[in-house]
Amino acid sequence: KCVDAGVASIMNAYNKVNGKYCGHNPHLLRDILKDDWDFKGFVITDFAWGIRNGALAVEAGVDIEMPFQWRMAPNKLIGYLNDGRITEEQIDEAVLRILRQKIKFAHKGDSEFYNKEKIACIEHTEIALEAARKSIVLLKNKNSLLPLTRNEIKQIAIFGELATTPNIGDHGSSRVYPPYVITPLEGIKNIVGNTINIIFNEGKDLEIVKKLANNSDVSIIVAGYGHQDEGEGSGTRERTGDRKSLRLHEKDEKLILAAASVNENCIVVLEGGGPIITESWRNKISAILMSWYPGMEGGTALGEILFGDINPSAKLPAVFPKSEDQLPYFDATTTSIEYGYYHGYKLMDKEGYDPAFPFGYGLSYTTYSYDNLRIDKNSMNSDGEIQISIDVSNTGNMEGEEIVQMYIGYKNPSIDRPVKDLKGFTKVLLTPGEMKTLNLNLKAKDLAYYDINKNEWVIEKIEYIVYVGPSSLKEDLLATTFNVS
After folding, report:
1. Which whole-number Å values give the CA distances from 343 to 115, 232, 235, 318, 339, in the listed order?
2. Quick one: pLDDT at residue 49?
3. Residue 263: CB partners within 8 Å, gap ≥ 6?
4. What is the CATH superfamily name and number for domain 120-351?
5. Model confidence over 372-424: pLDDT tens digits?
6. At a CB cut-off of 8 Å and minimum separation 6, what does 308 contact?
7. What CATH number was assigned to the domain covering residues 368-484?
8. What is the rounded CA–CA span in Å between residue 126 and residue 119?
């Protein structure tokens, strides 16, 4: 779809596909991208290690090497030409693709001048706050500990180094330099003012942790990862790069268990860029919030959610497994490995694994009911479309936004297919007691798979299952069926 929309450039990935680096793979870059998809833009490498051999890259269809000219520098290209490893026509093609986009965008620049005063202006910080509010996922809320009630709490103990760390993510090419970052501790203090006594401790001495937690109404532990733990970096280094484990650092797990051992009103706030395994401590505490890297206003959003000024509405964009045994084998130092087709929630479905928190999962301070799932017709042809409708009600006492998800399953497919695929979602705002009917549309072409033998998209004429609900968990979903004829 992005190629059909006229995207100007596409970046090849670092990894291998079927034994070949993407940047050395003419089947990916020429046969599929440039020929079958008729891509008119240019192919650009990922940073530094997007290709390993300049001649193979040019032959495969790479047009620009970034950010350095290590393997496709002019003198290197001349050498490849003289050796007969690439052709002049391949160089001409790359130049033509680059020039075509330069000319296309030469007069389409942004005419507005952005001065420094616009950086982190009110409008921008409001968007940053909204993004944080709508990103934090409530994963557990035993006995409705959250939201916290201000007039019932006298003291809160906050633990963890990350509580005072401006933790906004990777320090690689995506690094930004905001004028300020509201940390979790600052956000909580700003929300409660002088009404609640806030005690902070990094949590290095577990006996002190137990004493403070025992003397407090609520304990909040901020744990997880920072740029030094994950993100851009070599997997062979001690830190940065891919995580060796999805568990928290041992010191964080011990901190959580220590606080929870003396006070069951224990809340864990997780920070990080992906799933975190919680199994060793999940059942010992009362509440979990996944805040990811929440940005410059993340602490503000966290405080608002903890005290109910904002009702959390986010859902997980990835499955949180119970253990690494539910994941494909990983070794950061391996030079070659072959992975199967399925990953994430589709792998969980195929293997029958029970995750800690399923894909699409997220709690709210209110409750919702799903009723009366229906479709406007029971059959459609291969160029048709159906409408799926569901009644969603707010059955709780607080206004909230619910993300309604639609998955499709396949009955007796001719090829191996996922148990279910996410095919659509929508968000609805509901006041207490309010019910709304939501409509989701599904086109037959959304059901197609690509047949590499026929070189075409195929829509199977079989029975399909529509699942609608608040997450990918089967128990959460209502179901009905339709046919493609």
Report:
1. 45, 22, 21, 10, 9
2. 86
3. 213, 214, 216, 218, 219
4. Glycoside hydrolase family 3 C-terminal domain (3.40.50.1700)
5. 999 999 999 999 999 999 999 999 999 999 999 999 999 999 999 999 999 99
6. 146, 147, 148, 149, 365, 398
7. 2.60.40.10
8. 12
Tell me the CA end-to-end span of the chain in Å, nearest whole number: 25
Q: Which two tokens stand for residue 388?
A: 């799926």
Q: Are 443 and 464 in contact (CB under 8 A)?
A: no
Neighbouring C-beta atoms of residue 381, cutoff 10 Å: 11
How far is the C-alpha of 364 from the C-alpha of 396, rounded, in Å? 10
Predicted pLDDT of residue 114:
77
Closest among 84, 105, 88, 86 to 40, alpha carbons compared? 105
Residues taking part in catalysis: 46
| Edge-first strand listing for the sheet containing 218-224 | 137-141, 287-290, 266-271, 218-224, 155-159, 197-201
The label of the residue with tokens 């975190």 reads 276
User: What residues does each domain of the chain span?
Assistant: 9-105, 120-351, 368-484
CA distance linking residue 405 with residue 414, whole number of Å: 26
Give the distance from CA 289 to its chain's centroid: 15
